[in-house]
Amino acid sequence: MYPLLNRIENPEDVKKLTVRELEQLASELRHFIIDTVSQNGGHLAPNLGTVELTLALYSVFSFPTDKLVWDVGHQAYSHKILTGRRDAFSTLRKKGGITGFPNRFESAYDAFGVGHASTSISAALGMALARDAKGEKNQVIAVIGDGALTGGESFEALNNAGDLGTKLIVILNDNERSIDANVGAMSEYLSRIRSAPQYAR
Ligand SMILES: Cc1ncc(C[n+]2csc(CCOP(=O)(O)OP(=O)(O)O)c2C)c(N)n1
Fold first, then answer.
1. Residue-averaged pLDDT of the chain
2. 133 CA to middle of ligand 1, Å?
3. Which of 10, 127, 156, 167 has the highest count of CB atoms within 10 angstroms of its CB?
4. From the CB of 46, is ligand 1 less than 6 Å away?
5. What was the pLDDT predicted at 162?
């Protein structure tokens, strides 16, 4: 039923796929998530929204040497499925099963245990500084939603990261939602950026 997904044993397998195969894998992942969530409950929309993003990340970076920090963590199902937890995914949110959020005790690929919003940039910055201190070269990537970006801890972290100037990648997942439709100045500002001719170019 999931011919391509069943062949993915670890994230390095994603790197071997063609663009056409990645599109098929995205579709299979989406159906797989819907199948499980319809039985076990869980977050649906945030996870359907990060399928392509997750595949793009796994096509480019080498986890878990590179560190991937999800904000809130309610959008990490594809990440879990691609990192050795496909078969365990049927136990999602069940007693003794896998958790609905990244959990450091569950997998080496879960770089940071989450649940709270607005923590990813701060946590990733700490990991980037630890990397520098150890003289290592891995990448650190924070993925944050437009809703979580409005939390104060995000601004503290951006302020600190810009000042320290260490190498850190922050990906903004701007889907104009944060549980409900977004409100506020930040959301208006991001809409203006997104609709500007420079952005389309
Ligand atoms: C500190 C804190 N406050 C509130 C929440 C409840 N909460 C869960 S998801 C979410 C919004 C997330 O929106 P966004 O970051 O845009 O991510 P998306 O759902 O669009 O992927 C909030 C406020 C939380 N997890 N942590």
1. 96
2. 32
3. 127
4. yes
5. 97
